[in-house]
Sequence to fold (920 residues):
Amino acid sequence: MTGVLDVKSTAGKRLLVREHTELLIVGAGPAGLSAALEAARLGMQVVLVDEHPVDPGLMGLDIPFHFGQRMSGAHRGNAAIVKLAESDPRLAEAFEAGVDVRLGVAVWGLFAHGLGQRWIEGRVAGLSDGHNVWFMRFDKAILACGRRDLGLAFPGWELPGVMGVTAADALLRRYDAFNARKCAIVGSGVEATTFAKAALQAGRDVVALIEVAEAPLDHEGCTQLAEQGVPILTGSMIARAMGGATGVERIQCIKLGTEAASTELECDTVVLAVGAVPAIDLLDVAGARIAFVAEQGGYVPLTDAEGRTSVPMLFAVGDCVGITAAKTRDPAIAASEGARAAAAAAVAVADHWPPPPDKKEPAASDDEVSKTRMRWAAAVMTVADTETHVCQCEQVSIADLLGVQPPRYLRRNQPAMQARDITTLARDGTLNQDQVKRLTRAGMGTCQGRRCREQIGAILALATNTPLSAIPLPSYRAPVRPLPLSVLATLEEESALTENWHGWFGIEGQWVPYWELAKESDQTGSAT
Amino acid sequence: MTRQAADGASVVVVGGGVTGLSAAWWLARSGVDVLVIEKGIVGWEASGRNGGGATHHQSPLFAEEQRLWPQMDDLLGYPTEYQPKRIRVALSARQMEELKVGVDNTRGQGFSVDWLDAKQIREMVPLLGDNVVGGAYFACGGHANPQRTVQAYAWALQDLGGRILQHTEVFGFTHRSGKVTGVKTTAGEFACDSLVIAAGPQTGILTALLGAEVPVVPARVEMIVTEPLPLMPIGGVDGNYLYGRQTLRGNLAYGGGPHEWLPVRQDSEAQRPSSPMLCNIAKRLAELFPKAAHVRVIRSWAGIVENTPDGRPVIDRLPTADNVVVATMSSIGFGLSPASGRAISEIVMQGHCSFADLTSFRLSRFGNVAPNWREQRGWLPPATEGSNAGAA
Fold:
């Protein structure tokens, strides 16, 4: 080094970091809470953050779950925090054990010193309470970010009342704010049956379980529900939801592969329980190695038995490292993962961070996750019409997705463009969902792809006869929760950054017009 | 897919970014058999991740840039989302003063620019607030969608019979008696009569293999994008030390601020797309558009761009191999791409550019640059932390 500093670059700049913790835990579900309690028991200084209760504005955008506008007013304000605290007694235990519990705080990014980010010292998390953003430095972190739901497009799925089962379950059992009376549930796995039972117990009607496969996935659960009088419609698909401004009023259901007339069911809510997706957005932003592992529910971070990811000092536990039927049934499994990771974190040293297990061999395309998703994707393509938007935010129809056509506000009548489609694109090289997104805008919307990402993957796989595992993970970007400009603007900034901020490199003379340069070089004769 | 060494093309273009693709497309338009070799996916790097601006008044290619953009959708046969015009906003007297160079340059190129006072500019740009001092209105210039445009070049090239080989890396050349006769790649060797190297940050590394290193340093820059807003009459509005545009969908896509210099032989796999800098960009965007302060940021991304010592392009023949044309646009390649590609194609076919004076793009201007020019300018990556720093 000669000591010369490019003041317009990040060299010599500092990120202002408001606080520090030994262990940051993200997510106060069974895995995160159990990790927090174990870490506190082992004498660690722990901050446990959970984004719930979620800001009503974000809930309205289906973030972090597909809430489908079915939250009642009860989820707002302090009442929601009290409700949430009461929903799990271990939260109180964590408080008492000295864990710094922060509810209503989201982590929207994880960053670390590294190539291209060398101005960052150590490891930091970007946090927000909806009003402010700030950074917290951490020595170690355990991510227990949970899951979200696979979306499912069908005519009318934009209507209020169409929602994901994780959202429905959170509103029913954690928020006590589930604004639904009569539910149709799409899916017949453990998520569907568990929720159906909880809904019945809470005095809601369940008008049917609709399953695309010929036999129910959770056979035992479905038998119990059938005994309580809930119709289990197998080999069937929801063909349409109909209703008005307040949402779904009735749905049409078809028996696949038959000419039979569709059945109409009266309901105000359609709960989609067609597949659970590990919430890996923060893990991807943090740079953890991620692979398609069919037996864990799709794309998951590669972790060892203690939850170590490929990123030093970053652990992941619970649903975000893999979802199985057993784990869905029994929260104790996730809890034990949390405790194990906490014990490992207590003694972890960055210098001795083991390499992650090797990427598993791409699974054959007949694994359960692929089969289930492809089956639903095929059903979507059966019922979809030209107005069915697989991406609601950007209003991308399946026809436009597979035609790789530009959005409707652009010119769409050029013959060359019309001749292109997903098959020609796939011929050019590996099919890449991010590339399709850039061209069609599918997945580019305000919900950050939460409702459409995985079903688009399945539809692309189906249409091009590609195994699901061969379609690369579409990338996640910070902020992994949408944050207003005004909130991001609250970040404190050091004066060296403020004073040297420049629009573009600030290379001296870069904007001198070319004709003046010619004069200069004539005078100096320096150019040969 | 393995190819035989006998495979080749009249012109091989190394680099499927916007400059290489445009050059290949112009060559194909003239009936030249052309093959583009790209290590990843076309336009995946900085070519698809920039502000989309097309207002480069300092450049000898500016007039051609302005002439071509309005025709590009028709010439290519695919939508680029090109929108004309540019407004530059000043939030202080100092920013107003700094707009002068662009206004003078543009007028010097023979295009008109109008100065705007605070009231006039607020009428033209609904998202501005009371903090605006004034600005300038360029009837020329404009912006397009980088991702769409890069794909349009690639597809239009294919439509003319040009070939693109993606996911293929170049690691060497067959260099005989002052000419390159073959390009060695992970998919085999490709023979060529002429070679174009337009490989962005890798341009220096590749030209070094031919004994004439083009001096460049890569750097990381970052942008953010918000949820959509109602469209402003003119989307190409920037200022407050940010560059960017409102897309036709209504999103605000803006960048600016400190770049991070990267090691010259950086491992592009290791780059992360997002950083905390997104907050600092958001802060300035909220200042620029106070009436949009409530809109949410939904994404961010980074791109790796290269710069030469004077921040200006190189489009020139390589002194050590006279059938090789090298092109780096020094971090401002997207908007100029219709013109730069045409210039490159002419240099390949005729030896010179017929429509612009490219003296200032000559490689020989760096003949006197010291070997430690990067150190002299401080164009070095920040220091690494200790051994416990993770992926340093």
